[in-house]
């Protein structure tokens, strides 16, 4: 049995590693395609890009690992079924469960490793990815000019070019707003033509303009001239200036600024943060209820708290005889009382609606922490579920390679992913609980794994098309027999 187990493990580990790296590559390319605009023209060093891709790859493991296990399981058992190795094992009295046993042990430890990775590595990788992506987005890009469009890539300047000669790189009809003094659009330069060149060390921009005018609002201390905005105009034949660039080095932000996000926390941190948010929400609800009762519903009580006992007795009498007091009042007093009551009611309604939106937002924010807590476990459980789907399915279809197994794996994974994302979104919108939202995909897929394992154990031809054709013909004949008119004996 040791040789058999070794053979099964070797047959499985090769496809597992291959499919895992292929899945990682596909998901990484999808991520780069999505964020390619963030890297273009930033002058980033290759080490920064390699570091970013490494952290991104770590965050993609929860998607790549279950898919790799599913695909590798189908390929392994499909190859053994196609080569009649499964048939030989079953003929020797070895059941499918015993064949799957060494792989089940491997997947079990893989699931434990996935849980450790999700709880300890994923928060760090998410923190590094978010921090580095934020720094890359803040990195000032190289100046990319487009005809007829204002460009704000150059710090403290807004540049618009009418026409660009692609052969000579000369610029024509130039309009520049200079914001270096932070006085708004008070400094404007208009030129007929010009050039912009970056120094060899990329630390300075050399700006050369020809045949233009410089307009500048002049500051004045005289009060009568403050609203007139006197302007200074300078006509030039050639104007040159050197603009300091921020440099190509990436400025790194302190990572502690992102640690409060739910994706950057372990299980213990998520539990503490959830308890803290629950206490804060309960305190806010109680405080609002107290203020609402004292300021709106029983606002007159506070006026008698420091009065003598006679006034308090009068107040108690007013409470007991409100209806009779209102009936005995004059019409003007009734109108004033009703008007004030309506104002208080409208104010209370507005406050309640506003607080309701705030409390709903707090609940949605808390739900994200609860979802992330459950996500730590769903990765491990998904690895087990996809193994119990892939192994029996491969034994049933008996096809190896990258043809049919890839198609079936992608279909199952897409179904799982869609259900998972839909449940998580419903959970974030408070439509369902965080447990149900995060586990609904596993709950839906798990019965399929049980059915496939049973069918594979009993050698069921679940994918035999002829069986489905026969079943369809039986249903069709049954329906036609009911629709066919019965003959009348009298006829």
Mean pLDDT, rounded to whole units?
78
- Please trace the helix and strand order, writing H or E for each element: HHHHHEEEEEEHHHHHHH
Identify the strand order in the major beta sheet: 1-2-3-4-5-6
What general form does the structure show? extended
- Strand-pairing-aware structural class: alpha+beta
Based on DSSP secondary structure assignment, what is the total number of beta strands?
A: 6
Domain count: the total is 3
Low-pLDDT residue spans: 301-311
Q: How much beta, percentage-wise?
A: 5-15%
Largest sheet features: 6 strands, antiparallel
Distance between the termini: 75 Å
Estimate percent helicity. Answer: 55-70%
From the alpha-carbon coordinates, what is the Rg to the nearest angstrom?
A: 36 Å
Oligomer state equals single chain
Number of helices: 12
Detail the topology: elements first, then pairings.
Blueprint: H1 2-35, H2 46-59, H3 61-82, H4 85-91, H5 96-138, E1 150-151, E2 157-164, E3 171-178, E4 187-198, E5 204-217, E6 231-244, H6 267-297, H7 309-320, H8 322-327, H9 331-397, H10 404-428, H11 434-457, H12 465-483
Antiparallel strand pairs: 1-2, 2-3, 3-4, 4-5, 5-6
Which key features would you list for this structure?
single chain; 491 residues; alpha+beta; 3 domains; six-stranded antiparallel β-sheet; 12 helices; 6 strands; extended
Characterise the protein shown here.
The chain is of the alpha+beta class. The chain folds into three domains: 2-139 and 372-473, no CATH class; 150-244, no CATH class; 270-371, no CATH class. Helices cover 62% and strands 12% of the residues. Strands 1-2-3-4-5-6 form a six-stranded antiparallel β-sheet, with no helix packed on it. The longest helix has 67 residues, at 331-397. The protein starts with a helix and ends in an 8-residue tail after the last helix.
């Amino acid at each position: 049995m040791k040789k058999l187990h070794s053979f099964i493990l070797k047959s499985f580990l090769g496809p597992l590693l291959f499919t895992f790296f292929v899945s990682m590559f596909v998901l990484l390319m999808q991520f780069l395609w999505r964020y390619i605009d963030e890297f273009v023209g930033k002058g980033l060093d290759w080490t920064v890009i390699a570091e970013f891709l490494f952290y991104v790859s770590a965050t993609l493991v929860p998607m790549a690992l279950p898919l790799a296990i599913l695909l590798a399981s189908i390929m392994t058992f499909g190859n053994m079924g196609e080569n009649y190795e499964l048939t030989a094992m079953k003929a020797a009295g070895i059941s499918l469960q015993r064949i799957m046993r060494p792989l089940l042990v491997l997947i079990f430890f893989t699931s434990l490793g996935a849980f450790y990775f999700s709880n300890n590595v994923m928060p760090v990788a998410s923190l590094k990815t978010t921090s580095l992506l934020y720094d890359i987005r803040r990195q000032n890009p190289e100046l990319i000019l487009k005809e007829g469009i204002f460009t704000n890539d150059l710090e403290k300047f807004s540049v618009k070019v009418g026409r660009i000669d692609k052969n000579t790189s000369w610029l024509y009809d130039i309009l520049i707003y200079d914001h270096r003094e932070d006085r708004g659009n008070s400094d404007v330069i208009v030129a007929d033509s010009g050039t912009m060149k970056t120094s060899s060390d990329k630390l300075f921009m050399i700006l050369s303009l020809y045949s233009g005018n410089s307009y500048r609002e002049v500051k004045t201390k005289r009060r009568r001239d403050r609203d007139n905005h006197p302007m200074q105009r300078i006509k030039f034949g050639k104007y040159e200036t050197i603009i300091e660039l921020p440099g190509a080095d990436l400025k790194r932000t302190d990572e502690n600024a992102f640690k409060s996000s739910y994706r950057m926390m372990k299980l213990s941190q998520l539990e503490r943060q959830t308890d803290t948010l629950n206490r804060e929400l309960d305190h806010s609800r109680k405080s609002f209820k107290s203020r609402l009762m004292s300021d709106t519903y029983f606002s007159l009580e506070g006026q008698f708290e420091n009065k003598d006992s006679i006034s308090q007795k009068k107040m108690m009498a007013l409470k007991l005889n409100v209806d009779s007091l209102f009936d005995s009042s004059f019409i003007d007093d009734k109108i004033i009382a009703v008007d004030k009551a309506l104002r208080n009611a409208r104010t209370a309604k507005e406050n309640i609606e506003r607080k309701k939106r705030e409390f709903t937002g707090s609940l949605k924010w808390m739900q994200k922490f609860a979802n992330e807590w459950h996500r730590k476990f769903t990765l491990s459980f998904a690895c087990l579920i996809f193994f119990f789907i892939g192994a029996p399915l491969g034994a049933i279809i008996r096809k190896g390679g990258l043809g049919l197994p890839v198609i079936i794996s992608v279909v199952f994974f897409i179904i799982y992913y869609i259900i998972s994302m839909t449940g998580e979104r419903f959970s974030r919108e408070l439509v369902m609980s965080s447990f149900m939202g995060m586990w609904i995909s596993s709950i839906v897929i798990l019965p399929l794994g049980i059915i496939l394992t049973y069918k594979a154990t009993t050698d069921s031809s679940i994918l035999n098309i002829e069986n489905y054709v026969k079943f369809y013909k039986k249903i069709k004949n049954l329906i036609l027999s009911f629709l066919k008119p019965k003959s009348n004996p009298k006829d």
